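Blinded run. Sample ID left blank on purpose so nobody reads anything into the name before looking at the predicted structure. Input follows.
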Amino acid sequence: MKKYITLIIILTAALLFPVATRKAEKRVDKIVQFSVHAGSNYNFQIYNTAMAAIKLSVYKYSCNKKQLIWEKTIDAKQLSKFPGAENAMKQKVIVHNVKESSERIEASFQVIYNSKGNIFENSQASLLEKNKVDNEMEVAI
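Blinded prediction complete.
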């Protein structure tokens, strides 16, 4: 009988030991601050017909899968209507409970220019730094 009790205690300890020693995975909130502004002076007549639309996006990578977390489209408008850098349009996005060890967050933007039917696209994406909560992405039109 003693052998069975001892065996049960040893097996129970062996099964519970890995659970007790497993670390709780660190979860953090990540902040992305998009800053949208005109990168040039578009007040000249040549730019009167030029328009730009912008798509801002935030993705999460987990287990080699890309998941859209947040997206916003800024409708097309004349380039001269975008504010300068000092009055940039700001958009703050908070992604909650990110697993630092196994998940990555990507911020991206796509600018679609249209001038008299000629289309030009510009895009950029950036993975947010690990161990950094506040991140900024500048979108200069």
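Unblinding after everyone has recorded impressions. The helical segments are 2-21.
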